[in-house]
Amino acid sequence: MKLSPREADSYFAKPDPGKTGLLIYGADAMRVSLKRQQVLAALLGPGAEEEMRLTRLPGADLRKDPAQLLDAIKAVGFFPGQRAVFVEGANETATPAITSALQDWQPGDAQLVVTAGQLKATSKLRKAFEGHRNAYAVGIYDDPPSRAEIERILAEGGIRDVPGDSMSALTDIANDIGPGDFSRMIDKLALYKHGDTSPLTLEDIDAVAPQSTEAALDDMLNVVAEARSAEIGPLMRRLQAQGTNAVTLCIGATRHFRTLYTIASAPGGPAQGIGQLRPPLYGKRRDRMLRQAQNWGADRLQTALTILTDTDLQLRSAGQTAPALALMERALIRLSMLGRSR
Predict the structure, then answer these.
(1) d(CA 272, CA 225)
(2) Which of 10, 114, 201, 324 would bridge with 246, disulfide CB 3.0–4.6 Å?
């Protein structure tokens, strides 16, 4: 049977021990791995590894020795409790062994949990689970995490008192970084807040949030769009130290101001424009972009895009002799000053 994303979230939190098996597949190996960890922890409880209630088998090994999978499923454990066999990185060559195991599974056998990469709808492995009456197949896609998913990760880290502004900030971060990085950040946040029962603040989040080139670039674009000219110089030094080149900065600035222009020039006004963006913006970032678009207006944003286009042509010109970053810094200062004018 096939589970929808909403059904999958509920099932991962509370898997059915009476099911034959579960296939988790998707293009992002980290997302698939995190879901697999969640469902195995919920299914087997603590101590599964030590009590030998979890057997791990590489998918590539099943082509040479397909019988080992059924042997593992049928094996009787020394310890009481739910058992599972985890097949990692399965592909079409492992399908015969997995299909046979699904057919021969009986109540009381270990549950089969399989992970795979992106699978087409015609995949035999995918069809084996989707067509089974007592097994599930779940596709994991690169969608932004839902609020419920973020709340679950926070709860696992012991963080429960999260005000609205802090949740919006966490949502923005979760949308900007990978799921593995976000989980590690929450682990750091849990350690940072250990023994502290006060509500989670923006300062707490900022203390553990990853500081990357992308974060510094976003800081620069917001500084320029909000006409905070005095902060451009220090941020430019930070970007330079991180190895950001002028063309990358120009492309990022053009993308940011083009998004603002799209918002500001919507026939129904900026509120309608920001609602039509794809992919959509969420939380604090959405409010910030809306405010910037409203402050600039479509006419000045069009002028800003002209400045950035001219700067991009200068940076790519074969006859350009001025330092590229200095040229870009001057353009950003011009934009910032333009943002102040009325």
Answers:
(1) 20
(2) 324
| Burial status of residue 234 (CB atoms within 10 A of its CB: 0-12, 13-18, 19 or more) | exposed
Q: Whose CA is closest to 207, among 153, 168, 169, 239?
A: 169
Residue 212 has pLDDT above 70, yes or no: no
Q: Which residues make Cβ contacts (< 8 Å) with residue 339, sequence separation at least 6?
A: 224, 225, 226, 227, 295, 296, 300, 304
Domains of the chain with CATH codes: 5-139 (3.40.50.300), 147-208 (no CATH), 213-340 (1.20.272.10)
Q: Name the CA radius of gyration of the chain, rounded.
A: 26
pLDDT, one tens digit per residue, over 130-184 is 999 999 999 988 777 778 888 888 888 888 889 988 888 888 788 777 777 788 8
Tens of pLDDT, residue by residue over 74-112, are 988 788 889 999 999 998 899 999 999 999 999 999 999
Instruction: Identify the band that residue 248 occupies on the pLDDT scale cut at 50, 70 and 90.
Output: confident
